Amino acid sequence: MDVSLQARAPAQWFGQPRGLVVLFLTEMWEKFSFYGMKALLIYYMIRHLQFPQADASLIYGAYTGGVYLTPIFGGYLADRWLGRRRAILIGGSLMALGHFTLAFESAFFPALLLIALGNGLFLPNLPSQVGDLYEENDPRRGGSYNIYYVGVNLGALLAPLVCGTLGEVYGWHFGFGAAGIGMCVGLAIYVLGARHLPPDRPRSAEPAMATSSGFSAASIVPLLLVGLAVVVFRSGYEQSGNTLAVWAEAGVDRALGSSTVPVTWMQSLNPLFVFLFTPFVVAGWRRAAERGNEPSSLAKMSMGAAGVALSYLMLALLASTHGSTPVSMLWVVAFFVVYTVAELYILPVGLGLFARLAPKGMGGTFVAAWFLASFGGNLLSGVVGRHLGSMGPANFFVLLGVITGLAAAALFALRPQLKRVEDARKAASAA
Prior knowledge:
By secondary structure, this protein is mostly helical.
């Protein structure tokens, strides 16, 4: 056993290494920052900056795609030169600066660029530390990414309630300012809890070291195909903060007694259900593992994509039967229940898959490769989102169901190829 791991073993909170709690809280506040700004972004562009919906959706997709493009460079820089901790501190500082810069309308696009660049350094390097808190065969390791994912969504739950309310009621810049403060809190937690975190891995000096870990160029092809399927999936999945948010403003009856529920609050439903359902999903997988019949990573991911497709087809049926009459908020709640449970089967599982298969010294780079698929999907989601107005809500939601359903079929078909990669990695680790 690694001596440093032995030394950290007694230091646990809630049955997990203390470092997981530090990473959980850091990520929670970073996501409070990111999703707080994101909850306001589409409305800020349409209402305040007076962008047409089609242009605003395209810019939204380009921005949310850009924040997942820069991590491929940020992960590489951390693995080769900066180290993960320094990359996280620099990246978080740039993101906070970007959120505060949104206070100036004339600096709108530079502010988005600062956030995207900072995110590139921050995003791949924080989750790549999760696996290093555990030994290779620790039974807690498999579910650790789902626990970490709760931190992601706890921040995303609070963000629309706080930043969204401040932005809609008191002014856009109060909401963006709260997002910047959240990022600063996350950085402070990371610095204060640094002693509980694993040391940086040795930095990769040669790209060829991937082959020494049982990982070859041929092994990358199945992961590349998985990434392409996730690109297609995310082009539909990412509409929840884009066109779905636009439709909800007029298409959902938000009256609650004499009050009207702020439309940004609906974006808290997804992270709320992640928070509520994750323990049950992880417990179900653990029981299945004990019986020896836990689904493979790609089987879970294909089920998740199929579930998201089902949720969009539910919306299509609602939109076609109600026409221009607003639907009850209860239907939106039902949509997010299905959408969220499905999400738990694909997004944290995919992140854990790429982190688990990363060769030693290349954890940040491989996690960044997972987020590169998110870049492609978010960018494509902006192109897809432009068609909401021309197709109408019912037909548009059918389109989203078809897109995510095709991704589910592709992921299911890739199971045999990925199994060969995982088997080769296990054989190399045992050698």
